[in-house]
Amino acid sequence: MLVFGIDTSCDDTSAALVEDGARIIASTVASSVDLHRDFGGIVPEIACRSHIRDLVPVIDATIKQSGRSLKDINAVAVTNRPGLIGALLIGLNAAKTLAYVLNAPLVALDHVSSHIYSVHMENPALQFPYVALVASGGHTHLYHCTSHFEHRLIGKTLDDAAGEAFDKVSAILNLGYPGGPNIERAAKGVAPGPLRLKRTYLGGDSLDFSFSGIKTAVLYHVRGQDAGQCRRIRRRRKVKPARQATPPEIAAEFQEAVVEVLVTKLMAASKNLRVPAVTVCGGVAANERLREAVAQACSRAGAACYFPSKALCTDNAAMVAGLGYHYAAAGRHSPLDVDAVATSW
Ligand code: KG4
Ligand code: ZN
Fold first, then answer.
1. Rounded to the nearest whole angstrom, what is the distance from the C-alpha of residue 324 to the centroid of ligand 2?
2. Is 208 in the pocket of ligand 1 (CB under 6 A)?
3. Is residue 283 within 6 Å of ligand 1 at its C-beta?
4. What are the start-end ranges of the H helices in the chain?
5. Exposed, middle or buried, 260 (CB in 10 Å: 0-12/13-18/19+)?
6. Atom of ligand 1 nearest to the CA of 139
7. In CATH, what class is 123-310?
8. CB atoms near residue 185 (< 10 Å)
9. Separation of alpha carbons 93 and 318, rounded Å
């Protein structure tokens, strides 16, 4: 079955043609990141205008690249939640139009479920049940996954998402946008210096996350307002003066702190639920240090771990078309009046 996928949930405009849920025949992603760089984050109005400009060329390029014709498409899958509402509506309306003119079923999907599915595309050995960590610019969520259709939320961030924290810390350190790859590059081969960031575990058996404290601690250190720099605080807390950490040292310590918390909670969840495998997906899953730390923790725990390839970590429509295959094959179609929803389930 050939499924055409579309994703316009955030800043990337993407389309893909996928066969039987796994074979990517063609995939195109047009990024508008350059237009957002000066603002240090996604500007919804700019993202929407970029989708309007790019979506039809992206669909055309995908069909051309595939060597197939529109008439070969058996179903159309599209992200209708969660995301920027204007951006979602653009992709959803294009998908409805395609489905209508091709007389093909429409499948409207949750973007987070598509990220979770992305791991299956290149890892046929991955079996249910498992715990999935979705770490992206908008999510840091843990799910107990028992089928392609059932993901139970077991933990989530109470404030910033992990990717959002990477982006904000990168802005504080003047490393540019998007922050994740820039922080990773700056931290590569650098030992954390004098700065020690407190890991936030939220106590007890909590599987929730909080990254705003780590981000604020970085900000205070850079401004010289933390215990290491500020004489008044040092005297009160009786701590020795410390030198200011360099931006690469801060990047390295920040990355270690985030990775440590993500890995600890992921492994705790897999132990609690006694699942034999874990997966990590979403933009932050592209981070090499995170992949390495998860692999080491899983090897110690005797669990299997799976990641998407880097191209499938960040937003793409191949994962949407991939998951769309399972929905279409199970007859889980969506009506043509299905709406876009800004928030997740
Ligand atoms: O999944 P994604 O492309 O879009 C959302 O659905 O949010 O994730 C984008 C996020 C950004 O916050 C970006 O900084 C982060 O993923 N990211 C990374 C890396 N590559 C992208 N974070 C850490 N390390 C990376 N190598
Ligand atoms: Zn995403």
1. 16
2. no
3. yes
4. 33-36, 44-66, 85-102, 111-122, 162-172, 179-187, 212-223, 231-237, 247-273, 288-301, 310-313, 318-329
5. middle
6. 7
7. alpha beta
8. 12
9. 18
Q: Which residues contact 116 (CB under 8 A, 6 or more apart)?
A: 132, 134, 143, 145, 151, 279, 281
Q: Residue-wise pLDDT tens for the chain (345 aa)?
A: 999 999 999 999 999 999 999 999 999 999 888 888 888 788 999 999 999 999 999 999 999 999 999 999 999 999 999 999 999 999 999 999 999 999 999 999 999 999 999 999 999 999 999 999 999 998 999 999 999 999 999 999 999 999 999 999 999 999 998 899 999 999 999 997 899 999 999 988 999 999 999 999 999 999 988 877 777 777 887 877 678 899 999 999 999 999 999 999 999 999 999 999 999 999 999 999 999 999 999 999 999 999 999 999 999 999 999 999 999 999 999 999 999 999 864
Residue type, 259: V
> Cα of 283 to ligand 1 centre, how many Å?
3
CATH topology of domain 2-115+313-329: Nucleotidyltransferase; domain 5 (3.30.420)
For residues 293 and 312, what is the distance between their CA atoms, to the nearest angstrom?
20
Give the strand order in the sheet containing 106-110: 23-30, 13-19, 2-7, 75-81, 106-110
SS3 59: helix
In the block, which residue shows the tokens 């990141």?
Answer: 33
Residue 3: strand pairing partners = 18, 75
The number of the ligand nearest the C-alpha atom of 169 reads 1
The one-letter code for the residue type at 315 is D
106-110 and 75-81: which strand pairing?
parallel
Kindly report, as residue ranges, where domains of CATH 3.30.420.40 are found in the chain: 2-115+313-329, 123-310
